[in-house]
Design a protein that fits this description.
Helices cover 35% and strands 29% of the residues. The protein is of the alpha/beta class and 91 residues long.
Length: 91
């Protein structure tokens, strides 16, 4: 797998090399929901009331953003989740 954000990731995607993407998971105790950011893909900010919902929304969002970056919707990436301490305590 080749990580989105590394030099040449768009070329790797076009060569059908599988992509991965770092996704940081956070928890907001005030609204009791999770949210994500990504150091690899600008604009990936999604929310969900459960980890499953968050992961589903993150996959949709990251694949849409990758598709926009490549001007081609057929590419997908696998998220590599990292959890903040507050997200781990809530899970």
């Amino acid at each position: 797998m080749y990580r989105v954000g590394l030099p040449g990731w768009k070329l790797a995607a076009r060569l059908n090399i599988p992509l991965s993407l770092r996704v940081d998971v956070h928890y907001d105790p005030e609204v009791q929901s999770y949210w994500t950011t990504s150091p690899d893909l600008d604009g990936l900010i999604v929310t969900g009331h459960s980890i499953d919902e968050l992961l589903k929304e993150a996959k949709i969002g990251m694949n849409d953003l990758i598709g926009l970056a490549l001007k081609d919707r057929r590419f997908t990436a696998v998220p590599q989740l990292s959890f903040s301490p507050e997200a781990l305590g809530a899970a």
